[in-house]
Amino acid sequence: MQGSRLRLYRPFLVLLLVQALFIAVAPSLPSSDEVATSAPLAGNFLPSDTEGVFIDPETGQLVTADGTPVSSGGGSAIAGRPGSGSAVPGGAGGSAAGGAAAVATDRSHCKGDRQFDILHANPPCVPKWTGGKENGGATFQGVTKDEIKIVFFGTQPNAAVDAILAPQGLARTEANEQALFAAATEFVNKNYELYGRKIKIVERDDAPCPQTPPNPPPCIEAARRIVAEEKPFMVLWDSGLYPTVFNEFARLGVITLGGWHFSEEYFTDFRPYRYDVFMDGTKSVRMLAEYWCKNLAGKKATHSGARIHNTIGLRDQVRRRLGISVPDVDANLRTARLLSDLVRKCDPGAEPPVIKPYQSNIETATQQADATAAAYIDAGVTTITCLCDPIAPAFSTRSYTKNNYFPEHLLPGIGLLDFDKLGRLYEPSQWTHAFGISHLQVQPRHSDSDASRMWRAAGRSGNPCESCNLPWSYVALAASFIQSAGPDLNPLTVERGVQSSPGIGGWKQTGGNPFVPRVAFAKGDYTAIDDVKEVYWSETAASTIDGNPPSYFNLAGGRRFEEGSLPSGFEQRVPVKPQ
Question: In 3-state terms, what secondary structure has residue 431?
Answer without folding.
Answer: helix
